Structure formats: structure tokens, C-alpha cells
Amino acid sequence: MTDLAAVRRPARCRRARVSVGANIGILGTLTTAALVLRSIDYGESDRVVTLLGRSTGCVGAIARGARKSQHRFGGGLGLCSIGDAMLRERGGSELLTLERFDVTTTYLSLGSDVARIGHAGYVAELLTKLCAPRQAEPEIFDLAASFLRHLDAEGVSPTRLRVFELTLLERLGFAPALETCAVCGRSDLSVGETIDVRFIPDRGGVVCQGCATRGRSMRPVVRATLAALARTSLSDAVNVVVTPDVARGCRDALSELIAVHLSAPLRSLQFLSQLDNLERTASARVPALPVRGAT
Fold first, then answer.
1. pTM, whole model, 2 decimals?
2. pLDDT by residue (tens digit) across 212-239?
3. Domain assignment of residue 262, yes or no
4. Which domain holds residue 203?
């Protein structure tokens, strides 16, 4: 078990964003490592895909003949597939043309585990909605690829998902204030039982009682856990033990914070909620094992 207070991660410097236009060559084409965030059928044989390119950021592209051509796409346009994408500009259109997609990484477990699919779908939708179009964010691409590797190898982990959310928000410049008041900067916040902060997403995080006029109260243990998870790496998340009630508090706070930066609710959250309800129902139906010697 990891001591949350002892977890530390080196501070990062965010890289300057680069417009995808700066990466288009003289012939209007480029090749980039890319993650498939969304793929929908279009017409009789085409697909429209949303990609997170390591050197392009989030882009939309049309893949002509993708449902028929195994040579150019190799059946690799499934959710969260990673490969080398060859893209070409289309005059007068926001959509690029996906000339080919050579798969480099697939996650086989996503096709057989509903819980894994739920977490992957949520991450894909979150990236689609939060990442600015055509803005290169290589660190975010690497973060997503790392999360998917852990998800594939180790299964779902709500704690790892919280770490992903916090790290993504940080790298996008939306990191919440968790260790100081977002308004006055007060740092002597309670670590005991006394509740002295409110969580106000549109003010940037926790706000002390002296500055807060609204918002919901946040228990010190939830605030401290979120602050510690913000310093935790994806690989270390599996070692962090969080009690169910604190985990729910962390989940709800981050959901509220993320919602501030969205124009509409995430559809994948409803699916995750359904999975959570099914898991709780199944757990409640498991009969207790008899205790030896009990009467």
C-alpha cells in the first residue's frame, strides 16, 4: 500500500502547442502516430474518424473505402487502436483525408471485457471533447497510450482513471487548486475532521470558508486524496488504496470539474454509471460465507 502523502512526482513544464498546419508538408500530407478516438460509417464504404495524432492533436478525417480496403487500413480503425496515420489536407474542408492507417498497437482485451471497453470509451470521449482541434499535444498522446497499456494489461482501476483525469487536466492547463484556496491562496487547510473548504469547479478548485459563498463542502480526506493522486503516476496508481466513500467523493468532484469545460454531458459517463450499478447489485447478491463455529 502506498502512503498517499509520501507520493511525489517531478513538476512538468508544458510544451508550446503547435498548429497542425505547421506539420503539413509541401505536398499537403503528413504521417503521425495516431490514436483512434471515434469511427463511424459514412456512405456505402467510407468511414469518418476522429484521431488524436501525436504531432497533429485532435483531427477529423474521412477514410475512403475503409470498410472494404484491408490493404490501406488493415481493419485497424477500431476504438483506441494506435498506428501510423498518413493524412492529407482537403481543400475547403475541415476534414482531412486518411490515406492509410498502419496499425502498430491493438488492445485485444478491449474486445472481450465490457468494463475495459467502458473505461477506454470514456477516455476516448474525454480526449475528443477536451483537446483543442489541430493543436499538437504529444504529452497527452503519450498519456493516453500509457493509460491504455495499463488498462489492457491490468484491467480497470477507478483510482488509475482518477489519476488520468487529473494528469490530463494539468496538461491542458485546467488543474484544480487542491492544496491552497483558489481565491486567496491560503495553504493551512484542514487535514483532520474539520471541514474548512468548499469545492467550486468554476472558481478553480477548493475555496476556503472565508472566501466561499457557495459550493458543496469537501471533506479534508477527499481533498488530500485528490491532491496526492495528482502527484501519482499511472503505473503507481495500482498501489494506492482508497476507501469506497473517498473514491466516490473524488469521482464526483472531478466529474463536476470536467463538466465546467464541456458544452454537453459525456455519453460514456452514463455507461460507466450503469456498469457501477451492476457491480454493486452483483456484490449485494453474493451470499456471505458461513463462519466456522458460528451458531
1. 0.85
2. 999 999 999 999 999 999 999 999 999 9
3. yes
4. 176-266
